[in-house]
Hints:
Blueprint: E1 2-5, E2 10-14, E3 21-27, E4 33-35, E5 39-40, E6 43-48, E7 61-63, E8 70-71, E9 84-86, E10 93-94, E11 107-109, E12 116-117, E13 129-132, H1 137-145, E14 149-151
Parallel strand pairs: 3-6, 4-7, 6-8, 7-9, 8-10, 10-12, 11-13, 13-14
Antiparallel strand pairs: 1-2, 2-3, 5-6
Amino acid sequence: xxxxxxxxxxxxxxxxxxxxxxxxxxxxxxxxxxxxxxxxxxxxxxxxxxxxxxxxxxxxxxxxxxxxxxxxxxxxxxxxxxxxxxxxxxxxxxxxxxxxxxxxxxxxxxxxxxxxxxxxxxxxxxxxxxxxxxxxxxxxxxxxxxxxxxxxxxxxxxxxxxxxxxxxxxxxxxxxx
Length: 177
């Protein structure tokens, strides 16, 4: 593998397997609207690496190309201004804490192609509603992690119970101390 930096806003890692692919490893631009390229030089972009956009506090919009199949851990961690993300239809994996602490993110459509979502992928995204396909991995993730969601094509938001709410907090109301 070989690290490189493009003339514009990206650092990237070229896979030396002869396949002509690369991963974005860092964003060094200052734009509020970011459209990730599907190619840098002759290399097809297939992944967003760990912490790639981490703490890019000005970024409000990100569009990821259809060539990308994986978003790694903490890729967009703490992008507090991030309001909208367009995910590619062929995306297969969203890594651990990928969108954690993206507190302005209110809705995110998860393609049905996603078959793996890491723990805490949306931690502290309190107002987030996932848009999912019925029976998808994203629906199961939302249900099991207490994340609000709605089905694609529907306006009805489903609010699953939060699995971390402790029903028995050890406090006995009848026997106050």
